[in-house]
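TL;DR need structure tokens for one chain.
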Amino acid sequence: MKTSDFYYYLPQELIAQKPLEDRSSSRLLVLDKETGEISHRVFKDIEEMLSPGDCIVINNTKVIPARLIGERKNTGARVEILLLKRIDKDRWETLVYPGKKAKPGNIIVFGQGLLEAEICEVINGGNRIVRFSYEGVFEELLDKLGQMPLPPYITESLKDKSRYQTVYAKNDGSAAAPTAGLHFTEELLERLRAKGVRIAELTLHVGLGTFRPVKTENIDDHIMHSEYFELEKSQADIINETKKNGNRVVVIGTTSCRTLESIADENGVLREKSGTTDIFIYPGYKFRIVDNLITNFHLPESTLLMLVSALAGKENIMRAYDQAIKMGYRFFSFGDAMFIKGR
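>> reply
TL;DR here they are.
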């Protein structure tokens, strides 16, 4: 299967640049993966579409303000660092721009010296390992000096950092938001709980590899990035019990989907686990646990578009995307949502 099989044309004006004032007022395209039937709702209508005993699975990761803009200590030239993965207390794997001049030994200064970063080494793919030096608490300095690492297709600035966080975000570590969860409000979650819908949590720290396009001609040749995940026993038990009782598990976002599929055994049973996953889900993949998925609309030729095509069928997905474009849906991180409905 070729990467070009997952191309579609998206008018630039449909790329959402700002979040809606009311998170839950986004549009919701509902796709029945068995029949291919499509309907159109508002996201808050998800309350009507879930039943007592059902369970939603959310990713409680929290985006860190991972974009730092500073200057080279010896020249004053502008340098941007994007934090990708913490290695230990003060060392991080990063992207540095411009990268060609970011050589080991270079010092980059942020906040007029409140924070400094030394380039330690260049690793595979051109990423840099940097060591930070500072006084005080790193997380407090990062919150003061850092910016939210918005995707490159969002060109407008974000005034309120909280709008690129889910309302249930709590575990620091992501370089990008699990955007399907951005549609939930505290009020909507409370109404779901009152209705008898259970909520299970997991953590997957989203890496910037989620934005990287597939560059290989054949998708089998693509090397997937790895991301850290955690699932506690109590949360695994909620999901297992829901399935055992014959109720639906509705997974919120491709990050939650990838985590569950990485952990589930051949019988679709989950257990407590933490680690890293580089699972690549594309058409032909046999799902172990996920039947129902709430997700946003994804970039052409992306691994996320391939994942939803594996779940709902490529023809169904491309037809749904075509209809969404014709109806003016908002796409990508701050855009509208899709509910892929299984049983």
